[in-house]
Design a protein that fits this description.
By secondary structure, this protein is α/β, with parallel strands linked by helices. It is 35% helix and 22% strand. The chain has one domain: 3-Layer(aba) Sandwich (Carbamate kinase). The model has no long low-confidence stretch (mean pLDDT 93). It binds adenosine-5'-triphosphate (ATP) and magnesium ion (MG).
Length: 267
């Protein structure tokens, strides 16, 4: 059975209707797929940092993470948001377990390489897939907060999209980024005009033209980076339309799709 890796954006998590979790329950009960959730938490992290008067900034959609910022990121992601999503699953009778990438060595990381200093921001080098498969096969939904650890025990903040992409790549299956937009829009703020599919070359061109900016940059790069023979598709969908996910699984045109092509070298 296929695994459906869903990345729930921090942009949408607190606005998801109950029908979203009901839809996941239905997918699980009808054995359409094994659902797995990875989440973000950008807006709630921003709010708490602001309250604590800790400055925050982004480079290409990635949060510059000082030691102080990391403490707040972990509190929000592995504490508040992770627990809230598990709660929403449980009240729909879905068995869910909240984990961070620290638990059971789920996500091993190394620091991301960027030109600018970006602090404790990690990229995944290894996923404990055996443990995830054990949970999935027992009909338990892993709800994963994107925090990882290196071999010295240092914790890192991982962009939620990049964490979901690494997990999808390691497990195979289908990857859906559930966000607060209906896909990659041709003009920012024009929700009626969405690219139905994008190649890597097209996406990088849109980043250059600044049509794709902010958090959409790591999202499209993560979608493309996840593609392989085992992971043939990724999609960006709107979380306010839960039926979009069911439609997507049926193969209908919805959101922005990224499709693996054998002749393309993904870099
Ligand atoms: N061309 C584009 N089309 C659609 N959205 C875009 C585009 N360029 C930039 N964006 C921005 O990207 C945002 C989605 O990324 P963002 O990181 O904010 O959300 P998320 O990943 O769902 O949440 P989180 O990062 O908290 O998990 C949109 O809300 C929009 O403002
Ligand atoms: Mg994001």
């Amino acid at each position: 059975m296929d695994i459906l890796i869903m990345k729930i954006g921090g942009s949408i998590q607190d606005k998801l209707p109950g029908s979203f979790y009901q839809m996941i329950a239905q997918l699980q009960q009808t054995k359409k797929c094994y659902p797995l959730i990875v989440h973000g938490g950008g807006p709630m992290i921003n709010t708490l940092l602001e309250k604590l008067a800790i400055p925050t900034k982004f480079v290409d959609g990635l949060r510059v993470t000082t030691k102080e910022v990391l403490t707040v990121v972990e509190m929000v992601l592995s504490g508040s948001i992770n627990n809230e999503i598990v709660t929403q699953c449980q009240i729909k009778q879905l068995q869910a377990i909240g984990l961070s990438g620290i638990d059971h060595g789920l996500l091993k990381v190394k620091p991301v390489q960027t030109i600018e200093a970006i602090g404790f921001v990690g990229e995944v080098t290894e996923v404990n897939t055996a443990f995830l498969m054990e949970l999935l096969e027992n009909n338990i939904i892993p709800v994963i907060s994107p925090i990882g650890m290196d071999e010295t025990g240092q914790h890192y903040n991982i962009n939620g999209d990049m964490a979901a992409s690494a997990i999808a790549k390691a497990l195979g299956g289908k990857l859906a980024f559930i966000s607060n937009v209906p896909g990659v829009m041709k003009q920012q703020k024009d929700k009626s005009n969405v690219y139905s599919s994008l190649t890597q070359v097209e996406a990088e061109q849109l980043i250059k033209e600044k049509i794709i900016t902010d958090g959409m940059i790591p999202k499209v790069r993560s979608a493309i980076g996840s593609l392989s023979v085992q992971m043939k598709q990724a999609v960006i969908l709107n979380g306010l339309e839960p039926e979009d996910i069911a439609n997507y699984l049926k193969g209908n045109e919805v959101g922005t799709k990224f499709i693996y092509k054998e002749e393309v070298a993904y870099v």
